[in-house]
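Predict the 3D structure for this chain.
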Amino acid sequence: MRALPGYGEEEMKYKKILPRFLFLMLVLSSVGCVRVDAGSTIPTVGARIFDLVEAHENGLISDEEFQSLRRALIRNMGR
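Done. Predicted structure below.
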């Protein structure tokens, strides 16, 4: 590696390494700014209907309640 005028071999190494090091530090420090909340999930309509069917089969809700809640879930699918 040839040194630039006014710079020795050691300075040239640092001139190449320093920008890469600073970029790496910037990337690593910005990772702490991202928040991923993997623990909270919104149940899908299919999962809600499955839970509703399970509750109906276990006798927790009546036939009328089941039909009413099922219609409400289907009606509110797009929201």
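Residues 1-33 form one domain.
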